[in-house]
Each structure stands twice: as C-alpha cells, then as structure tokens.
Amino acid sequence: MAHRSIDVYLNDHLAGATFGADLARQLEGRAEGTDFQPEMSRLAADIEADLDTLTGLMDRIGATRNPAKQVATWVAEKASRLKLTGVTSGNDELGTFLSIEALALGVEGKASLWTTLLEVRGHYPELASTDLDDLLRRAQRQRRVLRTERKAAARRALTTDGEG
User: Fold this and answer.
1) pTM for this one?
2) What average pLDDT is seen over the chain?
3) Residues 81, 106, 138, 17, CA torsion sign
C-alpha cells in the first residue's frame, strides 16, 4: 500500500508520542510523594496534549494511520515495562533513570518533528492553524525539566549497588 512520505513520517512520530505519553504517566505514578511529582504531572499532561495535537494535525492533513505501527507500539510499550520499571535489574532507581532517559530521547524526537514541520509548513496549508513555534518551545521546556531530573536519577541509580 503506497503512502505519502508525510504519512509515514507522522505515523512514526505518532508511535513515539503514544509510547511517550504512556511512559510519562508511568513516571508520574512512580514520582508520587516525591519533589518531582508536581513537575512530572505537568510534564505528563503536556506530553498527552502534544499527542492530541499530533493526532489532530494528522486528521487535518488527511494522514492515513498505520494500524501495524499502532499495534507494534502497544506491544513495545508493554514489553518495555519490564526494563523501564527496574524489574529486570532488580533496581527500581535504575528503572526510573532509564524511563526518564527514554522519555528525554522521545522529547528530543518530538522537538525534531516540530522543527521539521516548520520547514515544510508552506507545502501543507493544514499546518497553518497549528502553532508549531509554541510546540517547539514547549518541547524545549520539557527537555530542560527532563535533563535536570535525569541527572538526579542517574546519581541515585548508578551510585548504588543495585539497591533501590
């Protein structure tokens, strides 16, 4: 089945955004009762809003959804829980650190998405109603928050002997 290149590109980002939104909510739950909880709650809400923005943008552009990628994302997210919760290492702190690092990589990809769409928006009038500059600024704020927490999580996870 032939797809426009933009459809393939947006579906790849939809898969990542879906994974990221699920991971952000998991991290929010793990942050309960910590200093990071309020920031993680805001971050998770922002990431879900970004996912909603992306799906709305895909609808406006008329991008065909790839159900195989959606299923693969669901399976990958469920399988990743073993590693990203620390079950496989026996170290909860390591799981949290790896989760934050994975989410940070996802936010980096999302910033790339918004930057790319800024470059091609002249070819897609449907993008005119989307404030891509604001979305890029929000991704940059998300990166700063995750960078700070990733450093703290690395210290907790990588300077213990597997306890946590």
Assistant:
1) 0.85
2) 87
3) negative
